[in-house]
Design a protein that fits this description.
Blueprint lengths: L15 E2 L4 E3 L26 E10 L2 E4 L9 E5 L7 E9 L4 E5 L20 E6 L3 H4 L4 E10 L11 E4 L11 E4 L4 E9 L1 H8 L7 E5 H8 L19 H8 L3 E7 L10
Antiparallel strand pairs: 1-12, 2-3, 3-4, 3-14, 4-7, 5-6, 5-14, 6-7, 8-9, 8-11, 9-10, 10-13, 11-12, 12-13
């Protein structure tokens, strides 16, 4: 699931990937450890298509935002685990392919994360990413990483890419759809893409490290405007500089694992 984006007109489309999704299919050893699979009664049979995995965060009571590409080509969406270690089936309320956003309705009693007014966000701001990177290898638990906003995705002439900003907090497959949080606790963007470092290294003979991209909060707020999860932008408070452990403590209960999967065929024994 690769989106064709040029890098300064020189690097081919394969250099960027929205590939924070982790694809797990039958016959692979990449499936995350229990409880990363849905309940047994909803688990896909061996011949089913691969599941897709990523992250999401609550933006209003009962509403979770995630990346649309996690659900592309999938029939069902699950969010969890909740406080009872159970998976909940989610209903898709709205999607936007160009913005790579999907709003899910899910019966979760969880805190929500506030969205920052993007016009207040300066280059160089300290930010944190929370999500589920490579759960098959790093374990099925939320992780937090720290970095800064490095700059915008492109110059002002490239209108199609102005919606992204570059940040340096480490992310991997599984982080897609998770929040990028400022040092005052407000969400400034959603993790969506990262530079394909190996592809770029083959062409440039240089290894780019932690070059990641997030959708700006302004676009998220616009997407939510006509939905039940509509939110008001909060001014960024640059006088508040929470430590990473404080950011994690106040935000992690609003971040969840998201699974997109295809429905199993009907049970042959069912009339």
């Amino acid at each position: 699931m690769l989106k064709p984006i040029l890098i300064a007109g020189l690097i081919c489309a394969s250099a960027l990937m929205p590939a924070h999704t982790q694809e797990v299919g039958p016959g692979t050893n990449a499936a995350p450890a229990t409880p990363a699979s849905p309940p047994a009664q909803t688990a896909p049979p061996a011949q089913a298509a691969a599941n897709s995995f990523g992250s999401g965060f609550m933006v209003a009571p009962g509403y979770l935002l995630t990346a649309q590409h996690l659900l592309e080509g999938k029939e069902l969406a699950f969010v969890g685990p909740n406080a009872q270690r159970k998976w909940l089936k989610a209903r898709v309320i709205k999607t936007h392919a160009n913005l790579d956003l999907a709003l899910l309705q899910v019966p979760l009693d969880s805190p929500v994360l506030p969205l920052a007014d993007w016009k207040d966000v300066p280059i160089g701001l300290e930010v944190f990413a929370i999500g589920y990177p490579l759960p098959a290898y790093q374990g099925f638990s939320k992780k937090i990483t720290e970095g800064i906003i490095n700059g915008n995705r492109s110059n002002q002439e490239d209108l199609s890419q102005q919606r992204f900003f570059q940040f340096s907090a480490e992310v991997s497959k599984g982080n897609s759809g998770g929040p990028v949080i400022a040092s005052d606790g407000n969400v400034v963007g959603m993790v969506q893409r990262k530079l394909n470092a190996m592809s770029v290294a083959e062409r440039s003979q240089d290894l780019a490290v932690n070059v990641n991209y997030a959708l700006k909060s302004a676009l998220i707020l616009e997407f939510l405007k006509d939905t039940p999860a509509a939110a008001q932008a909060k001014p960024l408070n640059l006088q508040i500089n929470l430590r990473p452990m404080q950011i994690y403590k106040q935000s992690e209960s609003a971040v969840f694992f998201v699974i997109g999967r295809n429905a199993p065929p009907p049970d042959p024994g069912t009339p």
